[in-house]
Specification:
This protein is α+β, with helices and mostly antiparallel strands. It has 19 helices and 24 strands. Strand 8 (196-201) and strand 9 form a beta hairpin. Helix 14 runs antiparallel to helix 15 (492-531), helix 16 (541-551) packs across helix 18 and helix 18 packs antiparallel against helix 19. The longest helix has 59 residues, at 427-485.
C-alpha cells in the first residue's frame, strides 16, 4: 500500500472527490517501485513488472540490490542516488544508467539502459518513510543514438532537441556523480581523521556530523540531531557551552590547550577526567553570518597523564636525591649533564645550572681533568660503568678527593636513555689510607728489626749450645778417664751435673731457640703476606682441599682421622690465600682432635647470594665460649698454653679472609668439637690503586 500523501494544507478538502491512489499507481503506464529506507522492495505497479520481466511475488520483500544484482559503477551509481534522496530529502535523478537485468529463463543478463528518478516520501514528522523510484527503459533510444552517431547522419530538430536534453541530463548526472564521489571521499577522510571532529549547526549548536574519534571521546553515544546541551548534559558548568555561544555570537575562533573536561562514558557512570586540545572554528554562511561551528581537536589524556606521572616521579626522585648524603647527578644519553642535586651545589658553592653541559670538568683539579674526560668519553662510547677518583674543588677553594661513579639506564631495546651518577667525598678515607700505609710501613720495619735483632743472639745461643754440647762430651770423656785412673776424684755431684743437669739445660735452650725461630719465621710470613698482591683466578675448591689433605697425610694416618668433603662450590679468588686459609683450618682441626674417639673432619659449602659459606667441622676437644674471640689474636691460643702451635695460624687465617673481602667465625662446645665458618665473595674484585 502507498503511504498517505498530504495536501499542502495537510488534510483533503471537504468537497474533494475521493481518489483511489492505489488504482492510479497500478494502472499508470510509467514503471514505479516503492522502497523502504533500507532499500527493501515494498510494492510495484504492473508497468514495472513488465519492464523488468519479473513477478510481484519474486520482488516483494527483497532488497533492491539482491533482486537486481550487479557490479561495478552501475551498482555504485544506483546506490549513491538512493542515498542522496534519503540524505537530502529531495528527489534525485539518474539521466542514464547502464544496469543489466536477469533474463526470466535464468540464462544470463539482458543489457538495459535506464533513466530514473528517486523521490523521498515524508511522514508527518518530516522523516523519510519510503522512496518512490520512477524508472524508464531508454535502451532502444540509447541504441538509436549510438547508430545515428556511427553513421553520422544529420539529425532533425526533434532528434537534435532530444539529444540536447539527454546530453544536458547526462552532464548534470556526471556532475552529480563527481560531487558525490568527492563528498564520499571527504566523508571517509572525516571519519578516519585521528583527531575528533564535529559540525554544530545554529545558535543551539545542534550536531550535524560527528566522526568516530569524537564518538569515542564522548562514550559512543548518539549525538547527531541533538544539541550539545542535550547530548552532553554533564559538561554543564565546565565553561564549554559558554565558549561555543561566544564563538557563534562574535565569529571569533577559540583555541584551547590541555583543557580538562569531565565526560560520562557510561549512562549511569561517574564522569571521567579527560584532557583535550581543541579549536572552535565559526562556519560562515553565504550571507556572511555564522551558521554553525566546526569542532576539531585531539584527546591528549594519555600524554597529560604520562607527563603528570613523569613529573611526580621526578619530584620524588629530587626529594630522594636531595636527601642523599652523596652528590647525585644525571646526564642525557649523549653525556650532557642536565641535573645535580642540592648536595652538589652545597659542596661546590656554584650557582645552580652553572655546571651543566661540559662545565663539570672545570671543577676538577687541573691534573685530573684530562684523565676524567677521557674515561667519561670511554664510558659513553662503550656503555661501561664509569668509576674514577679525582680531586674536586670545594666551596672553600680546596680540592678534596672524590669517588665518582655512574651507570647507564637502558630501555627495553637495550639503548641507553640516561646516565645516573654519584660523587662521594673520600678525603677522610684517603687520609686514613695514608695513615694506615704509614702504620704498615712501620710494622714492616718492626718486623725486620725483630727478625734481625732476635736472630743475631739466637745464632750466638745456638753456637753456645753447640760448644756446651762439645764440652759435655769432653767432660764425659774426662770423667771416663778419671774414673779409670783416679776414682776418688769423680764425685757424685759431678756425675749428676754431667749426666742429668747439663743435658737437660742444653735441651731446654735448643727447644726454646727453635720455637723462637719458628715465631720469627711466622712473623716474617705475615709481613710478606700483607704486602703480596692478590691475584684472582678460578679455583676448583674440591681439588684445593684435596691438596691440603695430602699435605697432612702423615698426620691423618697417625691418628686414623676421617676427612670428608661434602660439598665445595668453586669461586674466583686468590689461590695461595685460599690454600693457607683452609690448610691452617684443617691443620688446626687435626691438632685438637680427641684421641679418646675416632677423629672426623667435615668440610661443606653453600651459596648465599653473592657469597659462599664454607664450614670446617671437627669432633675434637672443642673451645670454651669465652675463648671465641681471643683465638684469632696473634700469639693467643684457646685453653692452656701447653697445647701445640705458636698461636699464629688462626690470626693469619683471619687476616687472609679479611683481605679477600670475607669474614670468619667459630661455634663450639667443649668436648663436642668445633665449626669454623668462612664467608667469602664468589668473585674477588681487586680495586684499582690508580684513580
Amino acid at each position: 500500500m502507498l503511504p498517505p500523501v498530504h495536501s499542502p494544507q495537510g488534510q483533503p478538502g471537504p468537497k474533494d472527490p475521493p481518489i483511489d491512489y492505489q488504482a492510479l499507481f497500478d494502472t499508470s503506464p510509467n514503471p514505479y517501485v516503492l522502497l523502504a529506507p533500507d532499500f527493501t522492495i515494498l510494492g510495484m505497479n504492473e508497468a514495472y513488472l513488465r519492464v523488468t520481466m519479473r513477478t510481484r511475488e519474486g520482488l516483494t520483500g527483497r532488497n533492491m540490490f539482491e533482486a537486481f544484482p550487479g557490479e561495478g559503477a552501475s551498482v555504485e551509481q544506483l546506490r549513491a542516488s538512493l542515498e542522496r534522496a534519503l540524505r537530502t530529502r529531495r528527489p534525485d535523478h539518474l539521466a542514464l544508467i547502464h544496469y543489466d537485468i536477469p533474463r526470466p529463463d535464468g540464462h544470463g543478463f539482458e543489457e538495459r539502459f535506464w533513466s530514473a528518478t528517486h523521490t523521498p516520501l515524508l511522514d508527518g514528522a518530516g522523516e523519510v518513510s519510503c522512496i518512490l523510484q520512477h524508472t524508464v527503459d531508454v535502451t532502444e533510444l540509447h541504441r538509436l543514438r549510438m547508430v545515428a552517431k556511427s553513421f553520422r547522419e544529420p539529425a532533425g530538430p526533434a532528434t537534435q532537441l532530444e539529444g540536447d536534453v539527454l546530453r544536458r541530463a547526462q552532464a548534470v548526472q556526471e556532475a552529480n556523480l563527481s560531487l558525490d564521489a568527492e563528498r564520499r571521499h571527504l566523508r571517509r577522510l572525516f571519519e578516519q581523521a585521528p583527531g575528533f571532529m564535529a559540525v554544530l549547526a545554529g545558535p543551539e549548536h545542534r550536531f550535524e556530523l560527528a566522526n568516530a574519534a569524537y564518538l569515542q571521546l564522548v562514550g559512543h553515544r548518539d549525538v547527531v540531531g541533538q544539541t550539545v546541551r542535550e547530548a552532553l548534559p554533564e559538561v554543564s558548568g565546565q565553561g564549554f557551552f559558554e565558549l561555543l555561544d561566544n564563538v557563534f555570537t562574535t565569529g571569533q575562533p577559540f583555541v584551547g590547550r590541555s583543557l580538562r573536561v569531565l565526560l560520562q562514558h557510561e549512562p549511569a557512570g561517574t564522569p571521567e577526567e579527560r584532557f583535550v586540545d581543541l579549536v572552535y572554528q565559526p562556519i560562515v554562511g553565504a550571507e556572511g553570518g555564522v551558521s554553525g561551528i566546526f569542532v576539531q581537536g585531539h584527546d591528549i589524556t594519555e600524554r597529560i597523564l604520562a607527563e603528570q606521572a613523569l613529573q611526580e616521579s621526578e619530584r620524588k626522585f629530587r626529594i630522594l636525591a636531595d636527601a642523599m648524603p652523596q652528590m647525585v647527578w644525571s646526564t642525557r644519553a649523549d653525556g650532557f649533564h642536565d641535573y645535580y642535586n642540592a648536595r652538589w651545589y652545597e659542596f661546590t658553592g656554584m650557582p645552580e645550572g652553572s655546571t651543566d653541559g661540559e662545565e663539570w670538568n672545570s671543577m676538577f683539579h687541573p691534573e685530573d681533568q684530562e684523565r676524567a674526560r677521557k674515561l667519561w668519553q670511554h664510558s659513553l662510547a662503550t656503555g661501561e660503568p664509569y668509576q674514577i677518583e679525582y680531586r674536586l674543588r670545594h666551596r672553600s677553594g680546596q680540592y678534596r678527593w672524590t669517588l665518582g661513579r655512574a651507570l647507564p639506564v637502558r630501555n627495553q631495546a637495550g639503548e641507553i636513555e640516561r646516565w645516573f651518577g654519584t660523587c662521594t667525598d673520600i678525603s677522610e678515607i684517603k687520609e686514613v689510607e695514608a695513615d694506615l700505609q704509614a702504620a704498615n710501613d712501620e710494622i714492616q720495619r718492626f718486623a725486620y728489626i725483630v727478625s734481625h735483632d732476635l736472630r743475631a743472639p739466637l745464632v750466638n745461643i745456638m753456637g753456645f749450645t753447640s760448644e756446651l754440647e762439645a764440652t759435655r762430651k769432653a767432660i764425659e770423656h774426662y770423667h771416663a778417664t778419671v774414673q779409670d785412673r783416679a776414682p776418688e776424684l769423680a764425685t757424685q755431684e759431678a756425675r749428676v751435673a754431667i749426666e742429668e743437669d747439663l743435658p737437660e739445660a742444653i735441651s731446654f735452650i735448643r727447644t726454646s731457640t727453635a720455637k723462637m725461630d719458628r715465631l720469627i719465621g711466622a712473623i716474617l710470613r705475615l709481613s710478606r703476606e700483607g704486602r703480596r698482591v692478590l691475584t684472582p683466578e678460578p679455583v676448583a675448591m674440591r681439588d684445593l682441599l684435596a691438596v691440603c689433605q695430602q699435605s697432612l697425610r702423615h698426620q691423618f694416618e697417625e691418628t686414623g682421622a676421617e676427612f670428608i668433603i661434602e660439598s665445595a662450590p668453586d669461586l674466583t679468588s686468590d689461590r695461595l690465600a685460599l690454600e693457607q686459609i683452609f690448610g691452617n683450618l684443617i691443620d688446626n682441626a687435626a691438632k685438637y682432635l680427641d684421641p679418646a674417639r675416632p677423629g672426623r673432619i667435615v668440610i661443606r659449602g653453600y651459596e648465599t647470594g653473592a657469597y659462599l659459606r664454607y664450614e670446617v667441622e671437627d669432633n675434637g676437644r672443642g673451645i670454651d665460649r669465652k675463648d671465641f674471640d681471643r683465638i684469632f689474636d696473634l700469639f693467643r691460643r684457646a685453653g692452656s698454653q701447653d697445647r701445640p702451635g705458636e698461636g699464629i695460624g688462626l690470626a693469619h687465617v683471619r687476616s687472609l679472609v679479611r683481605r679477600l673481602g670475607g669474614a670468619i667465625s667459630v661455634s663450639s662446645q667443649p668436648g663436642q668439637g668445633s665449626t669454623f665458618t668462612v664467608l667469602l665473595p664468589k668473585t674477588l674484585h681487586i680495586a684499582s690503586e690508580a684513580a
